[in-house]
Recover the amino acids of this structure.
C-alpha cells in the first residue's frame, strides 16, 4: 500500500526495505537509534523520535512488571531513540568551545554503542556535522543510515544504508523523507508491538 500511495518511491524501494531491516535488527539486538540533521532535517529528527518513543499507529501496552500496574496504564511501549538536535545546551557549548562541525559527532561518541543505529538526515547528503557524526559512528562500530536526495553524496558513500529519494530540490526531498520515515516507524512498530 505504501508504494502504491507513493509510486515514485519504488525507485528507492530496496534502500527503504534495507533500512527497515536495519531498524528492526537494531532493536532486536538491544540497541537504540540516534538521529541528527539540520534545519528541516532537525525537525524530522524530532518527528522520527516521537514516532518511535510512544505509540504511533498501534497501542503499545507496557507489560514490564517492575512498573506498578497503576503507572503502567499511563505508559506506552517505547523503542529507544534520541534526537541529537534537541540537546541545545551541549550543542551550543560544544559549538562555542570546540568545533561546530563536530557537534553531532561528539554526541554520537558519548552515546553510541555497537548495537546502535545512527541516522543522518541531509537533503544534500553533504552536511559536514552530519557526515562527521556518521564517520564517528562507523569508528565505534555502530550501524549507519542516511536519508538524502537523489544525488551521490558523502553520506550515501559512508552509510551502511542510504535512502536517496528521487528529488533534488530541498523541499521536494523533505516531502519524500516524511512518508519514508513514517513507513519505517510504522513497520518497526508493527514488528515489535
Amino acid at each position: 500500500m505504501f508504494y502504491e500511495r507513493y509510486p515514485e518511491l519504488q525507485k528507492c524501494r530496496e534502500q527503504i526495505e534495507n533500512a527497515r531491516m536495519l531498524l528492526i535488527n537494531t532493536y532486536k539486538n538491544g540497541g537504540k537509534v540516534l538521529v541528527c540533521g539540520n534545519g528541516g532535517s532537525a525537525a524530522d529528527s524530532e518527528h522520527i523520535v516521537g514516532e518511535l518513543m510512544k505509540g504511533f499507529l498501534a497501542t503499545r501496552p507496557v507489560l514490564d512488571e517492575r512498573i506498578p500496574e497503576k503507572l503502567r496504564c499511563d505508559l506506552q511501549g517505547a523503542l529507544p531513540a534520541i534526537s541529537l538536535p534537541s540537546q541545545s545546551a551541549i550543542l551550543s557549548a560544544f559549538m562555542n568551545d570546540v568545533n561546530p562541525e563536530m557537534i553531532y559527532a561528539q554526541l554520537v561518541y558519548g552515546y553510541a554503542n555497537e548495537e546502535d543505529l545512527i541516522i543522518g538526515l541531509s537533503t544534500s547528503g553533504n552536511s559536514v556535522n552530519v557526515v562527521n557524526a556518521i564517520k564517528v559512528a562507523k569508528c565505534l562500530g555502530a550501524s549507519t543510515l542516511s536519508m538524502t536526495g537523489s544525488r551521490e553524496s558523502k553520506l550515501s558513500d559512508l552509510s551502511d544504508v542510504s535512502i536517496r529519494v528521487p528529488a533534488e530540490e530541498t523541499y521536494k526531498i523533505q516531502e519524500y523523507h516524511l512518508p519514508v520515515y513514517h513507513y519505517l516507524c510504522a513497520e518497526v512498530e508493527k514488528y515489535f508491538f
